[in-house]
């Protein structure tokens, strides 16, 4: 079977369109690249960084469209914790709760939700500013 120039040009055009269409039609999403895995020798020589002494210990539970963070601060320094939720649907508004100050031996439960599915949820920590009395 002999291919003529017209068939070859149509085939090339269709190939280019099929190749370019999926990337042009995909929505722009933030894709995080996995961190490079260090070699076992490098991992043994580098010490792990200790967690800052003000950070409360938080446990995160996601059930359907609701996320709850259970935080306890075992340290004497105060910690400001916030729950952040990124919703799956483009029209669903992402949620950031107000910061809650956890003093020594403090406990807090932060809850929020999306209308539909949750893509990701996390808790952020920030050291609380020292009060004027201390």
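^ structure tokens above, recovered residues below v
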């Amino acid at each position: 079977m002999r291919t003529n120039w017209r068939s070859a040009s149509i085939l090339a055009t269709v190939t280019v369109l099929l190749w370019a269409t999926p990337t042009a039609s995909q929505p722009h999403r933030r894709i995080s690249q996995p961190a490079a895995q260090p070699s076992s020798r490098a991992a043994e020589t580098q010490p792990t960084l200790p967690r800052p002494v003000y950070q409360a210990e938080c446990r995160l539970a996601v059930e359907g469209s609701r996320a709850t963070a259970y935080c306890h601060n075992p340290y004497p320094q105060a910690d400001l914790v916030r729950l952040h939720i990124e919703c799956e649907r483009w029209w669903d508004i992402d949620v950031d709760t107000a910061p809650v100050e956890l003093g020594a031996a403090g406990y807090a439960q932060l809850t929020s939700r999306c209308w539909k599915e949750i893509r990701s949820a996390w808790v952020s920590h920030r050291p609380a500013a020292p009060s004027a009395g201390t």
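The helical segments are 5-25, 40-45.
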